[in-house]
Amino acid sequence: MKLKDKVAIVTGAGSGMGKSIALLYAKEGAKVVASDINPETTQAVVKEIEEAGGQALAVVANVAKEEDIQNLVDTAVDEYGTVDILVNNAGIMDNFVPAANVTDELWERVMAINTTGVMRATRKVLPIFQEKKSGVIINNASIGGLYGSRAGAAYTASKHAAIGLTKNVAFQYAEYGIRCNAIAPGGVETNIGSTIDNPDPFGMKKAMSGAEFNPKNGNPEEIATIALFLGSDDSNFVNGVVITADGGWTAY
């Protein structure tokens, strides 16, 4: 088992990539703290892990709220004694709204979940990692964080910021044995589309202009295997990188 006795927090674990990561981590021996804003789906993931013989704990959290982040990490430590891996997976789309049409409300909501939540969870675990001189942070970004038009202005900016934070943390805390990496998925079959409501026609047309070059969509399990690699000792010398997982879409 690649993660035997490790304690891993996974946000957005109620569905999609977060669920697949939580299930695979548990299968590989981790004690999983599964977090999501939806209590029913979070508990269902924990039940699935436990029925398969794994260990897991459900913590309902809105990553846009500082108090929820505090409670998430504190609960993990109270239950399992420490945290070894943080997977910042929770995220939302932005209706493909371009810069000319973006509202403060949309901008702030997307940034709060996709960027500020990542920062707060990272800030919370770093003292734990520093004290024991080890720890892994994995940020689920997007090819939208590497290229200019795979989404609207807010989502694109939020994922670019998350990648910048990834690199900053990786370099500044490497001397403590802490690694911080990111995954940049392309088209993956998840329910993040449920966070899209009344998409902006102009923005969506621009964002979809390269869609015909996408060879195929991936599945959440394929992203989970990358998260396993980054969370395990197999990637001990990998720090501050972004692994693009898009089936070759952005290689054209």
Widest sheet: strand order? 3-2-1-4-5-6-7
**Strand and helix order:** EHEHEHEHEHEHHE
Q: CATH topology, what is it called?
A: Rossmann fold
Task: Say which CATH homologous superfamily is assigned.
Answer: NAD(P)-binding Rossmann-like Domain
Helix percentage range:
40-55%
Structural class: alpha/beta
Q: Main beta sheet, described?
A: 7 strands, parallel
Mean pLDDT score: 95
Beta-strand residue fraction: 15-25%
| Sequence stretches where pLDDT stays below 50 over 5 or more residues | none
According to DSSP, the number of beta strands is 7
Name the shape in a single word: globular
- Overall tally of domains: 1
Tell me the radius of gyration: 17 Å
Name the CATH class.
Alpha Beta
Number of helices: 7
Explained architecture:
It is built from seven helices and seven strands; from the N terminus they run E-H-E-H-E-H-E-H-E-H-E-H-H-E. It is α/β, with parallel strands linked by helices and 252 residues long. It has one domain: Rossmann fold. A seven-stranded parallel β-sheet has the order 3-2-1-4-5-6-7, sandwiched between helices. Helix 4 links the parallel strand 4 and strand 5. Helix 1 runs parallel beside helix 2, helix 1 packs across helix 7 and helix 4 packs parallel to helix 5. It is globular, with a radius of gyration of 17 Å.
